[in-house]
Amino acid sequence: MQTVTPLADRFSTEQIHLVESDRQVNAARFSPCGEFLVAGGFEGEVRRWNIAGKTPEELPKLEGHHAWVEGIAFEASRNLLFSADSWGEIRAWNYRDEKPATQWTIADAHDGWIRRLVVSPNGKLLASCGQDQRVKLWHTADGKPVRNLTGHDQDVFCIAFHPGGKCLLSGDARGIVKQWDLASGECTRSFDASLLYLYHRIQDVGGVRALSFSPDGSLLAVGGTKPKNGGTVQGIPTLLVYDFESGDLQHTLELGAANDCYVHEAHLHPAGFAMVVTCGTPGTGQLRFQQLDAQEPFFQFKKASNPHSLSLHPDGTTLALTATNKGSNGNGRRLGKDGEYAGNTSPVYVFELKVKEG
């Protein structure tokens, strides 16, 4: 009988960089060429670092947005970077230019906060979702509208294209995941992830916060929290893994304690494990690698405070974890030497995932 080597004996994870930022940023993403790390800023800026050398080098900021930039995505063939903000604007830039200028802008792409941007596998479509309960498709080349996908009745937090490019999925604040046919714009089926939702004390709690596919498209991962209460939210960070063809729920992974709360991002590795970021009450959070049929992780990093995104480098071995400075809670915070309250920052931890020899 063939012996299966435990994942902890097959992989090792090492922190190789810490990228510092003087302000808070949202998800830091690797460019398709692998040379740049890009993050949306809380002050309406897009922050960039060249990571091709031994030490990450910060590049000039991209300016033009008027509010928090949360959505970041790339299209490889034309070197396009897409950014979206909480006012509902989308911008396109050539990220390889020394001084990138805006290629095109959609000022009112959504009515309010845009939560996520993703690009189709063939690079032709940009999908966006937002607080206005809409999912929209745009041409990446010029920003012209393609389709407006309606059917959600709550804030849409996340979207993901199937790796085969045949459909788009979207997840909302009520725990509903919808599958959209790209050709017709019709919703062809829904996945019930209402385990991740609770109505408590006139508050909607939870919802689908993360969507991702396995590289071969056979599995769908849906992340969020199994909520216990509203207010200061308490809930078990939970990842639901479905067989995509049948729609059957295959695995339910509970990934921490009640104060860890949400799965903010998850990726399914070809070796059969989930790479997950959880974050809840101030000061908590973890990066966690766990086999889908296991109860405990084989790797866990808990030194980052409130990590909220995880990006994979095109090389498949480098990871960027965006977090928050320690002591970010406003309660009891003291004034700095200048008599002002110090603002929060977002360190980005860069790891290398290695396959062990032997």
Describe this structure in words.
The protein has one helix and 30 strands. By secondary structure, the chain is mainly beta. It folds into two domains: 131 residues, YVTN repeat-like/Quinoprotein amine dehydrogenase (Methylamine Dehydrogenase, Chain H), CATH 2.130.10.10; 152 residues, Methylamine Dehydrogenase, Chain H, CATH 2.130.10.10. It starts with 6 loop residues before the first helix and ends with a strand. The model has no long low-confidence stretch (mean pLDDT 94).
The counted number of beta strands is 30
Number of helices: 1
How would the global form be characterised?
Answer: globular
State the helical fraction.
under 10%
Question: How are the strands ordered across the major sheet?
Answer: 1-30-29-28
Beta-strand content estimate = over 45%
CATH superfamily of the largest domain: YVTN repeat-like/Quinoprotein amine dehydrogenase
CATH topology type of the largest domain: Methylamine Dehydrogenase, Chain H
Describe the structure concisely for a colleague.
The protein has 358 residues and is an all-beta fold. It has 1 helix and 30 strands.
Helix/strand layout:
Blueprint lengths: L6 H4 E9 L5 E6 L5 E6 L3 E6 L6 E7 L5 E7 L4 E6 L4 E5 L7 E5 L7 E6 L5 E6 L4 E5 L5 E5 L6 E6 L5 E6 L3 E6 L5 E6 L4 E3 L4 E3 L3 E4 L5 E11 L4 E10 L5 E6 L7 E7 L4 E7 L6 E6 L7 E3 L3 E8 L5 E7 L23 E8 L3
Antiparallel strand pairs: 1-30, 2-3, 3-4, 4-5, 6-7, 7-8, 8-9, 10-11, 11-12, 12-13, 14-15, 15-16, 16-17, 18-19, 20-21, 21-22, 22-23, 24-25, 25-26, 26-27, 28-29, 29-30
